[in-house]
TrEMBL record:
Keyword Hydrolase: yes
Protein's name in the database: Agmatine deiminase family protein
UniProt key word ATP-binding: no
GO MF annotation: an example: protein-arginine deiminase activity
Length: 374
């Protein structure tokens, strides 16, 4: 979740973030192919899903007066996705009935202790291990102990046990929103979100890269700078740049009327890196701009609003993207996504409260690969 401005969750976090600012230009690490674990593969999001996992926001202490409104947003997203694939909503047992009523009969609501809605980060990353799906628990730490997460830290263990999915504990601390892959061995990641004392103290980028390759079966890591300390995630890649196919990426770009800031400079830095890089198979990148809306035209309120379209979610036969209220920009972004996913329905969903809280549709969903559940 890489918002245009500091997020509301930044103000609510319990610990102070580590110094802000963009890192220097990054390049690909050494040994692009020789440390990848054999038999492991992290698939692309556009591959077949068994189901989508989501999480019912539980804490008044995090959302305050916005809690009922963010629950409306989450229910709206869940109902929309359930038109295309099976959706499982995790909810605290005492909130299960209310969540089920809000989400409707097409969404399965299961009793499981959670704290907040960010399933992308709390649910394990799934890999294929010699063809069998395995969940990699990334040791969720509340984005470096910035928010209450006692229950969310256990989601990996409890959810995988419930569904009988093998669990592997990662040797590092990260979140699902940290990673963007093409399914063919290439991984995009922001240095700010993982080479950081608040997640992996004392670890160098080279060591973290080696651990990522061994744990996820990645062949080549492309490092982008990101932004430190200005949002709770330290600038996850999933709001900055996304694959639509191997070798093709959509890059979040600021609206022309937006003054330059750390987020737009992060986008410029990512463009500079990607324009010179190649993927795991040696292909150069085709970079497509995905412009943000005009902040004066959006329906959401506050300076915290996350106005990136890049935080979309690719589900079975569909793509889910935000509708911000700037009709021209919403239409343009939808057209770009339709061009790159021509065989999928592009579904726009209003998520103003989710966006005001520091995230988007991708942040609130997590796909399990596999044959679709009937």
């Amino acid at each position: 979740m890489s918002p245009l401005h500091p997020t509301r969750r930044t103000a609510l976090r319990t610990l102070t973030g580590i110094g802000a600012g963009i890192l220097g230009a990054s390049a690909c690490g050494p040994g692009d192919q020789d440390t990848a674990a054999k038999g492991l593969r992290m698939g692309a999001e556009w591959e077949s899903h068994a189901r989508t996992f989501m999480s019912w926001p539980a804490l008044q202490s995090v959302w305050g007066e916005d809690l009922p409104y963010v629950r409306e947003d989450i229910a709206r997203v869940a109902r929309a996705i359930a038109e295309y694939e099976y959706v499982v909503m995790m909810a605290r047992p005492d909130q299960q009935r209310a969540a089920q009523k809000a989400c409707g009969r097409d969404v399965e609501v299961i009793p499981l202790e959670v704290d907040d809605l960010w399933a992308r980060d709390t649910v394990p990353v799934f890999v294929e291990d010699d063809g069998k799906v395995t969940g990699v628990d990334l040791n969720f730490s509340g984005w470096g102990n910035k928010q209450t997460h006692a229950n969310d830290a256990q989601v990996g263990r409890t959810l995988l046990a419930k569904y009988g999915i093998p669990r592997r504990k990662a040797p590092l601390v990260a979140e699902g929103g940290s990673f963007e892959t093409d399914g063919e061995g290439t991984l995009l990641i922001t240095e700010s979100s993982i080479v950081n004392e608040n997640r992996n103290p004392g670890k160098s980028r080279d060591r973290i890269e080696a651990e990522i390759k061994q744990t996820l079966g990645i062949k080549k890591v492309i490092w982008l700078a990101g932004v430190r300390g200005e949002d709770i995630t330290d600038a996850h890649v999933d709001s900055l740049v996304r694959f639509t196919a191997p070798g093709v990426v959509l890059l979040d770009t600021a609206h022309p009327d937006t003054p330059p800031d750390s987020w737009s400079r992060s986008s410029d830095q990512a463009r500079a890196v990607l324009s010179k890089a190649t993927d795991a198979k040696g292909r150069p990148f085709e970079i497509i701009d995905l412009p943000q809306p005009d902040l004066y035209e959006i329906t959401g309120e506050g300076d915290d609003f996350v106005s990136t379209y890049a935080n979309f979610y690719v589900a079975n036969d569909s793509v889910f993207m935000p509708k911000f209220g700037d009709r021209k920009a919403d239409k343009r972004a939808r057209s770009i996504l339709q061009e790159h996913f021509p065989k999928r329905d592009i579904v726009q969903v209003q998520i103003d409260t989710i966006a005001s809280g520091g995230g988007g549709i991708h942040c609130s969903t997590h796909d399990e690969p596999g044959k679709p559940v009937d």
